[in-house]
Specification:
8 helices; alpha/beta; five-stranded antiparallel beta sheet; single chain; Rossmann fold; elongated; OB fold (Dihydrolipoamide Acetyltransferase, E2P); 31% strand; five-stranded parallel beta sheet
């Protein structure tokens, strides 16, 4: 292509934006024209800067990547490459309509393949508009699958913990502490957001600050005022408030 592809990076994580910028700068046909930390900023930047390509994170606070896409659907959109930490987060919709997605952490080879697809689509504007129109239709009716793994960022490392390996999760302000076996990991995710992403047949909120993996529950002990003590298989003792008691007993098929 004769002129450079104007690229906008959107991700609420500073480290992720930096990584995407480094990858983009390796391609001589790409020009990074800006970075956004949330969906609201992305909408404004797309309107003002008119990028050709947007590297768009899916999971962001306030407005996610889908929100950006739907907000702009009546206006001309740039090419979108979705970026996600969750490998089954509406992946089927992307694959059906030839839109690409990148799974964090992104490697050089996978990034370049996605960019090459973008270059092909940019050469055929009518084809891109058709694919985007079909994707928007699917997004209205497609629900994302449940979280299968959690991305952990610690001391410069990025790795994953499978959802099935999680024993329980506790709130730590705007963060959450994920307990898996003998290890605990802090992630930047609100409890309500995690609860909505996890399979409700496997994970249950027993307190406003606690989510447990139901398969790890070994015993319920009745306390005063309708509260319960929840004992896990590893001996961990957690408090279940009365508010969640009946729902969990129904889930575990426990009769009064």
């Amino acid at each position: 292509m004769s002129k450079k592809i104007r690229c906008l990076i959107v991700d609420d994580e500073v480290l992720a934006r930096e990584g995407m910028r480094i990858l983009a700068q390796k391609d001589t046909e790409l020009q990074v024209i800006g970075e956004c930390a949330n969906g609201v900023q992305a909408i404004e930047s797309i309107s003002q800067k008119r990028p050709d390509l947007v590297l768009l994170d899916i999971q962001m606070p306030e407005m996610d990547g889908f929100g950006v896409l739907n907000h702009r659907q009546r206006e001309k959109l740039p090419y979108i490459i979705f970026v996600t930490a969750y490998d089954k987060y509406a992946v089927q919709a992307f694959e059906v309509h030839a839109l690409d997605y990148l799974l964090k952490p992104v490697d050089d080879e996978r990034f370049q393949r996605a960019v090459e697809r973008a270059k092909v689509m940019l050469r055929s504007e009518s084809e891109w508009d058709h694919h985007l129109s079909e994707l928007l239709k699917d997004l209205e009716s497609t629900k994302p699958s449940y979280l299968e793994r959690v991305i952990i960022k610690e001391e410069g490392r990025i790795f994953f913990v499978k959802a099935g390996e999680i024993d329980w999760i506790e709130a730590q302000g705007n963060y959450a502490m994920v307990h898996a076996g003998k290890k605990s990991h802090m992630i930047r995710e609100a409890m309500t957001s995690l609860e909505n992403q996890l399979n409700p047949q496997k994970f249950f909120r027993i307190h406003r600050s606690t989510i447990v993996n139901i398969d790890r529950v070994s015993e319920l002990q009745s306390l005063f005022h309708g509260d319960y003590r929840v004992l896990l298989q590893d001996g961990t003792s957690l408090l279940m408030s009365r508010r969640f008691r009946d729902r969990l007993k129904d889930q575990l098929k426990i009769k009064n």
